[in-house]
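Bumping with the actual sequence this time:
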Amino acid sequence: PLLEEAASRLAAQNTADLVKLILSPTRAVALEAIRRAGGLRTPAAVAPLGAVFERGDVELRAAAVHALSEIGSPSALQALERGVEDDEREVRVAAIRALQARAYRPVLPRLEGIVKGRAIRDADLTEKMAAFEAYGSLCGNGGVAALGEMLNGKSLFGRREEPELRACAAVALGRIGTAEAQAALRQAANEKDVVVRNAVSRALRGQSA
C-alpha cells in the first residue's frame, strides 16, 4: 500500500509525463498509465485516451473506457462514444453501460441506430440488454413508438420479432416508465411466449414499485 500511495503521488505530480505514457509502445506501461489517469481524473488524458480506441488492443481499449468514465467530463464522455461502435463486444458493452450511468444524452443517436439496426439482432443477450437498457434510460417518449412496434408489431407476413429482441424492447419501455410506455407494455401482458411475457411483467412491476 505504501508503494502504491507513493506511485500515485508521483503520478499526480507529473501528469504531463503520465499523459505521454498512455500511448507508450510498451504495453504494460501504457495500461498502468491509463489506469492511473482514470484514478486521478486527469483532464489532459482525454485526447490520448481517445486515441487508444484507434491503436490499442482490447484490454487497453477496455481500460480506456473505464478511465474516461472516471474522468467524466463532457470531453471525456464525448471521447467515450467511440467505444460504443468498437470492434469488440466487451468494449462496446462497457462503453454503453458507462454512458448510461452518466446519463449522457448526446449518445442517443448512436444508441438509436444500434437498437433499430440489423446488427443488434445477431448480438448476444448481454449486448442486446445493455443497448436497450441504455436507450430506454435516455430516449424518453420519443422511443416508445419504435419500441412498441418491436414488442407488439407484426410483419406483412404476420411474423413478430424474435422473443429475445421483444423482451429487450419491453425492458427499454420499462426504463422509460411513462404512461405511453406502460400502454405499450400492457398490450403484451398476455403474450404467449414466456420470455416476452416475463420481461413485460417485470417491466410493469418496476414501474409500479
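The C-alpha cells above came from a reply further down the thread. The chain has a mean pLDDT of 92.
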